[in-house]
Structure formats: structure tokens, C-alpha cells
Design brief:
ten-stranded mixed beta sheet; alpha/beta; Arc Repressor Mutant, subunit A; two-stranded antiparallel sheet; D-Maltodextrin-Binding Protein, domain 2; single chain; 310 residues
Length: 310
């Protein structure tokens, strides 16, 4: 059994480094040792795990499938070891969390008082921006993103969902009329995200089909809170998420329109670099978030690529 685990460790390290030499350096071993152990693993499995050329070392299709299974095995081993460690006193240091300002204000801020009370030795830093960050460059522990995740190497754990709605102030609708079909948008002032941004496209469902509309607007912004403020002030229609408009809808400052066409539900993911060696502070924060967003949790996933943010 020890030799099997050793083979998995070597295989995973070679997969990460895409080089026998680099894997050997990281493990402080001779490259020939790494190569022999991986070859022994291939012989035992009866398949070739790597395409080997003088320039490229790449996983085969069988290697890709085995990689996924091997990662799960190593994760299970690590979790088994961690379960025997001390249950308290480990959650400390600095946790860096990335999100859009609106999602942080509407969904994360209400969770923080109980979290910091539970872990007083932990410092939490919020890094807020309209677009997803480079997790490695900015040393982000957890990034909250919606829709699909562009980098398939990241772990994306679904923790919640939100709905995007078309809203306007009652005063604007009294003045301009209430749209009843997507075609009516052409006759309205639409408040939108900057041209070319993913959110500037409005998906509208007609029957079983979804059509994308990019409404023209004289008022645009790169921030949902600004669009919400413009809508409340009676400047037009805006398509925004629940966490942008919940308070204004509840107070009657905004009302929704075209609900039969625009009521898209979208998953929200906690995105982090790797399942391996997940720090206690990240694990504690993810558990806390999922406990408060209960009922919306789904298995880890790597959704198809596209670049949105909540």
C-alpha cells in the first residue's frame, strides 16, 4: 500500500510540474527515480499515462482520467490526517476574500460578525473589484464569482444562487410606460453595464429559447450599485441581481418588469486555487458561508469558460 501511495505522489507531482526533472527537484530526488516509479505505475495499470517527447510531457486521455481519481484519493488521505489534528487554535493569520462590492455588501457583510466572533485570531481582508482577480498574483484565498469560471484549473464550489431582474422606479414607469415584451425595450431608456462587458448582454427567455439583447443606453457604468442608484432616481430600466436591488424592491423604490422573460437564476461559486492543503482558515470560512447560504450547496465543479463576476 505504501508503494501505491508513493506512485500516486510521484504521478501527481509530475502532472503538476509537466516535467520529470522539475518534479524530481521539488521532491529532492533523482529524475531517474521519478521516471522509474511512474513507469512502474504505468506497467501495473497497463496504460500509458504520459505522452513523452524531447520537448513535451503531456497527459494521455487515460492519464487525465487517472489524474482526477488520484487527486480524490490524496484529498481523502489529507482529510483523514487533518481529522486527527487539534480542533481549535488553528484558524489564524490573514484571509483574503475577493468579490464585487455589491455581493460583498449584500451577501457577505451580514455573515462576518458571527465569523470573526468565532475566530478572533483571524484577520479578514476584502479585495473588492468589478472583475475577477488573479488569485495567485493578488494572493486571494477565496473569490466569489457567478456564472461560469474561465480558469478550469481553479476549484469552484457552488455556495449560493441569485436572480437577475429588470427593474425600474415607479415614477419612470408612470412616465414611460410598462414594457410587456422584450421588443418594448427598444422604446425605453436602459441603464446598462459598459459596452463589451459580459453583463451588458441581457438574456431574455422566449418559450424554450433564450435570446440575448444588448440594449442601447445613454447611461452606463461598470458598477451595479451605480446602475441601481440611477434606476431608483427614475432614469430608466436596469437589469441587476437580487443583491443589488433587494432593499429597494422591498421598500417599493423599484419594481420588476418582464418577469416572464427575465428572471434568470445564476449560480454563485466560491473559487479557490486548489483542494490540496486547504488551509484551516479557508476551510472554516467556506463552511461558515455554506452554513448561512444553506440549501444551495452543490458539489465542486469546473464550469465551462466565460468571464463573468457577480
Amino acid at each position: 500500500m505504501y508503494e501505491n501511495i508513493r506512485e500516486l505522489v510521484f504521478f501527481l507531482r509530475v502532472s503538476e510540474e509537466t516535467s520529470f526533472s522539475a518534479a524530481a527537484r521539488s521532491l529532492d530526488l533523482d529524475p531517474s527515480t521519478i521516471s522509474k516509479v511512474v513507469q512502474r505505475l504505468e506497467n501495473r495499470l497497463g496504460v500509458r499515462l504520459f505522452h513523452r517527447t524531447s520537448r513535451v510531457l503531456k497527459l494521455t486521455q487515460e492519464g487525465e482520467r487517472f489524474l482526477s481519481a488520484a487527486q480524490k484519493v490524496m484529498q481523502a488521505l489529507e482529510e483523514a490526517e487533518e481529522s486527527l489534528g487539534p480542533a481549535s487554535g488553528e484558524v489564524s493569520g490573514t484571509l483574503r476574500v475577493s468579490s464585487t462590492p455589491a455581493f460583498a455588501r449584500g451577501r457577505l457583510a451580514p455573515l462576518m460578525a458571527s465569523f470573526v466572533e468565532q475566530y478572533p485570531g483571524l484577520r479578514v481582508e476584502f479585495v473588492l473589484a468589478a472583475t475577477p482577480p488573479d488569485l495567485f498574483e493578488q494572493q486571494i484565498d477565496v473569490s466569489f464569482q457567478s456564472g461560469s469560471i474561465p480558469d478550469s484549473t481553479l476549484v469552484a464550489r457552488r455556495v449560493a444562487s441569485t436572480r437577475w431582474r429588470i427593474c425600474a422606479a415607479p415614477a419612470y414607469l408612470a412616465r414611460a410606460g410598462v414594457p410587456t415584451t422584450p421588443d418594448d425595450l427598444a422604446h425605453h431608456q436602459c441603464l446598462n453595464f459598459l459596452q463589451g462587458a459580459f453583463r451588458s448582454q441581457w438574456p431574455l427567455r422566449r418559450g424554450d429559447e433564450v435570446h440575448t439583447v444588448v440594449p442601447k443606453s445613454n447611461l452606463v457604468a461598470n458598477n451595479g450599485d451605480m446602475l441601481c442608484a440611477l434606476a431608483v432616481a427614475g432614469n430608466g430600466l436596469a437589469r441587476l441581481a437580487d443583491y443589488h436591488v433587494a432593499d429597494d424592491l422591498a421598500a417599493g423604490r423599484l419594481v420588476t418588469v418582464l418577469d416572464d422573460y427575465a428572471n434568470e437564476s445564476e449560480p454563485i461559486f466560491a473559487v479557490y486555487p486548489s483542494r490540496r492543503h486547504l488551509s484551516p482558515r479557508v476551510r472554516a470560512f467556506l463552511d461558515h458561508v455554506e452554513a448561512h447560504f444553506g440549501g444551495e450547496r452543490a458539489p465542486d465543479a469546473a464550469p465551462p469558460a466565460r468571464p463573468p463576476a457577480p
